[in-house]
């Protein structure tokens, strides 16, 4: 966040070389992050370390916050598919019996999908809905869900977008399962070959010694 804002505010302090501008920017970003994430926000003086070279007044930090917010167009939170997972999982399982599994499995599917360029055409809400549908399809009691029902979960969801993303995720999950099964088969075959080789390479038992016949008795 500091690097994104620095280019827009550096022109105001281009003549400064003592480093106070960067320190002020760091304290300001920390203050904004605390206001976004914490329920009990510490004071602006508590966010600063006493041993630092500069200690800024609260009004100075507040003015810097307005500058940072203006540079970011007041967009402090990026919307991702993970923003919708908990809400959609609750829609699928209102009683919460499979809530943990749905959230965990949908998270795994999304993390695997973000590496595929084909998912860039889909909005975060459609990806979250499709991932929850895929996770629900792996649960026996929740297999009757389809993209048409998912449209009613949230305003802005389109059946075409959810269905297209859902099909891509099914292919992704199916491909990973096939690769896992093939890898397991290869490992099993290699283990069998190694066991056969090890059994064939064992040293043979020593040959049995022939009993010597007793010498003839001379009468």
Describe the structure.
With 219 residues, the chain is mostly helical. It folds into two domains: 65 residues, no CATH class; 94 residues, Cyclin A, domain 1. Helices cover 58% and strands 0% of the residues. It is built from eight helices and no strands. Helix 4 packs across helix 6 and helix 6 packs across helix 8. The radius of gyration is 33 Å and the shape is elongated.
**Number of E-state strands:** 0
The end-to-end span amounts to 115 Å
Major beta-sheet overview: none
Question: Globular, elongated, flat, extended or rod-shaped: what is the shape?
Answer: elongated
The proportion of residues in beta strands is under 5%
Order of helices and strands: HHHHHHHH
Radius of gyration: 33 Å
CATH topology name of the largest domain, in short, is: Cyclin A, domain 1
**Which regions have little confidence, pLDDT < 50, spanning 5+ residues?**
1-5, 181-186
Brief sketch in words of this structure:
The protein is mainly alpha-helical and 219 residues long. Helices cover 58% and strands 0% of the residues.
Protein traits:
8 helices; 219 residues; elongated; 2 domains; 58% helix; disordered N terminus; mainly alpha; Cyclin A, domain 1
